[in-house]
Specification:
5 strands, disordered C terminus, 2 domains, mainly alpha, three-stranded antiparallel beta sheet, two-stranded antiparallel ribbon
């Protein structure tokens, strides 16, 4: 027997139907925001409709594909489970992100235009906010047990099936996506040609830390898949911006070397969590500082790209060179 109230008991059992409703509401609202944003950015209606349809199709398909590539590499259960998941938690979050990005790329190519991806930045973040908050009904995005009674309240923590409170990592992930959304929307340069790059950079950086706090995660051996994909995404953005920006060779080498060093420090942090007696809180604080440096390196490259596209120096009188 537990001493939970009826309201608290409601969250002790998975309710995937509720999760899907929240997810659907988030997607619908994101579509509305996307169409409004597309109109303001002079994106043709046909292009916006194409991008929206491709996002829904490719996002759902690649989310499932990511899960099966990781969990069922020999495809032994694909026929029965691919389109009928036993658990909605089986969806691969980064697969959905990849599907949306691919939809933007295809739309740009089909209509010989640019800017669809940037128009998707804020709607995409809005969908992430809903998707993460919906995990309160699964639950999936939870962390360790919360011992302090002063922190045992919904939604900061939620009771598990045994009545013990666990930390709501999904809440922090939702708030982080919301903060990114607000930062980009109220930036002095909005709308900017690097809105999507900046949104992805901050999203991936947050995911590296927060994925580490989750008690459950999609894994390939000891590797947390979403974390690895986020790190790869940051490195890809770094290389893309450096390739497309006219800068000196020295600054490019500096960024790549520094990024590699801090990425190795993140790996060391994950190792410390599993293999050392060090208190988790200190390891997490160290990882947060390291990831902030990692994100700063990539943001630095993104802003240099923005400076070139807009023809002004956002980084200050000295430009975007590392001092």
């Amino acid at each position: 027997m537990n001493n939970l109230s009826p309201f608290e008991n409601y969250f002790t059992l998975p309710r995937p139907g509720n999760y899907l409703l929240v997810l659907a509401a988030g997607v619908l609202l994101a579509l509305v925001v996307f169409f409004l944003t597309a109109k303001k950015r002079d994106i043709p209606v046909k292009a916006a409709l194409t991008a929206a349809a491709l996002s829904l199709i490719l996002g759902a398909f690649l989310a499932r594909l990511q899960y099966f590539v990781v969990e069922h590499p020999f495809w032994d259960e694909v026929p029965g489970l691919f389109f009928s998941p036993q658990d909605v938690r089986e969806f691969g979050f980064m697969g959905a992100v990849a599907g949306v990005l691919l939809a933007a790329l295809i739309t740009n190519r089909l209509f010989k235009m640019r800017g669809v991806g940037n128009a998707m930045a804020l709607p995409g973040l809005l969908a992430v906010v809903f998707a993460r908050m919906g995990e309160i009904f699964v639950p999936f995005g939870t962390g360790g047990y919360v011992e302090a009674t002063s922190f045992q309240f919904i939604p900061l923590s939620i009771p598990d099936g045994f009545g013990d409170y666990v930390f709501s990592v999904f809440l922090v992930e939702a708030l982080w996506a919301l903060l990114i959304l607000l930062y980009i929307r109220f930036s002095a340069n909005y709308p900017s040609p690097v809105d999507l790059l900046l949104a992805l950079t901050l999203f991936f950086a947050g995911q590296i830390v927060l994925e580490s706090i989750r008690a459950e995660a999609l894994r390939a051996g000891f590797i947390r898949v979403q974390q690895a994909v986020s790190a790869a995404g940051l490195f890809t953005i770094l290389l893309y911006c450096q390739h497309r920006t006219k800068e000196g060779r020295t600054i490019r080498i500096q960024r790549v070397v520094l990024f590699t060093i801090v990425a190795l420090l993140v790996v060391a942090g994950e190792f410390a969590l599993d293999r050392t007696p060090w208190a988790d809180i200190y390891v997490y604080l160290g990882m947060i500082m390291v990831v902030m440096i990692m994100a700063g390196i990539v943001v630095h490259a993104v802003l240099a790209r923005e400076e070139q596209l807009l023809g002004f120096d956002r980084c200050g009188p000295g430009g975007c060179a590392l001092q």
